[in-house]
């Protein structure tokens, strides 16, 4: 019996040792699988970290480009405002020049009229002088002093108008001058 007990104990120990060996082999295999999973996940993490670094660099570049674009837009807006101001000033200058040109054209017309009237005045005095000489010599159509006096009155009125027109033209030229 002792022997059978020993055999049973040895058999139990062999079975236990076999079970333990099988359990250890299963655990070893499972540990190797988990180690492979951990290695694969570490490699995946490294790839994801590298990808994250690339994305962060691209984001930083995009942020810098955005900041540069915003500065460029601000500079362009300032230039647009400056050009708009210059354009408005130029528009004001154009209007001012147009008004000045209109005044000058009016002044030139006044000068032309005054010149015509002054020429008429001179011509009237020349005619009056001629008729006075003829009357003095008793040779001309204005044989009477009364006719000569009427002619002298007409010439004086024409000359007075010419001088008034001349004063108006000079005033217009002064207004047209910048």
Task: Describe it.
- By secondary structure, this protein is mainly α.
- The chain has two helices and no strands.
- The chain has helices spanning about 1-135, 145-175.
Question: Descriptors for this entry?
Answer:
mainly alpha; single chain; rod-shaped; 178 residues
As an assembly, this protein is single chain
* General form: rod-shaped
Q: Point out poorly predicted stretches.
A: none
* Mean residue pLDDT: 79
Q: What proportion of the residues form beta strands (DSSP E)?
A: under 5%
Indicate the structural class: mainly alpha
Biggest beta sheet summary: none
Helix content: over 70%
**Termini gap:** 144 Å
Number of domains: 1
The string of secondary-structure elements, in order, is: HH
What is the tally of helical segments?
Answer: 2
The beta-strand count equals 0
From the alpha carbons, calculate the radius of gyration and give it in angstroms. Answer: 60 Å
